[in-house]
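TICKET: design request
STATUS: open
ATTACHED STRUCTURE:
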């Protein structure tokens, strides 16, 4: 069987790694939190590119977590110090965001949801 050689640029892998390291998952948010609250809490660590509070599709209420993307990976790294800090009485969970792998959305018509 013939072998196939794959060449991957370490620079490209480094770019992908850096992009991942700029984005943080922030969990256990108070349900009344919004982008402004997170901006205020996290801007001390550096320039923020994007804040996305995840909301329920039907109620538009926060689902209690968000993603914050910094321009610089070193700023995101510094912001990890917010892990365990309280926001409106709730201890935040702050980690580097990871890609979801193969997660399926729940079917709205499944028997579990209609019970």
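STATUS: resolved
RESOLUTION: sequence designed for all positions
ATTACHED SEQUENCE:
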């Amino acid at each position: 069987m013939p072998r196939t050689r794959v060449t991957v640029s370490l620079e490209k892998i480094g770019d992908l790694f850096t992009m991942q390291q700029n984005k943080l998952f922030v969990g256990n948010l108070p349900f009344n939190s919004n982008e402004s609250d997170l901006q205020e809490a996290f801007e001390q660590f550096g320039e923020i590119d994007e804040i996305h509070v995840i909301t329920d599709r039907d109620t538009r209420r926060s689902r209690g977590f968000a993603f914050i993307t910094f321009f610089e990976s070193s700023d995101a790294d510094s912001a990890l110090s917010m892990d365990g800090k309280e926001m409106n009485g709730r201890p935040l969970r702050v980690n580097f965001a990871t890609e979801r792998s193969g997660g399926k959305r729940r079917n709205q018509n499944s028997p579990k949801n209609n019970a």
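CLOSING REMARK: The beta strands are 23-27, 48-55, 62-70, 86-87, 90-91, 93-96. Helices lie at 10-20, 35-42, 73-79, 111-114.
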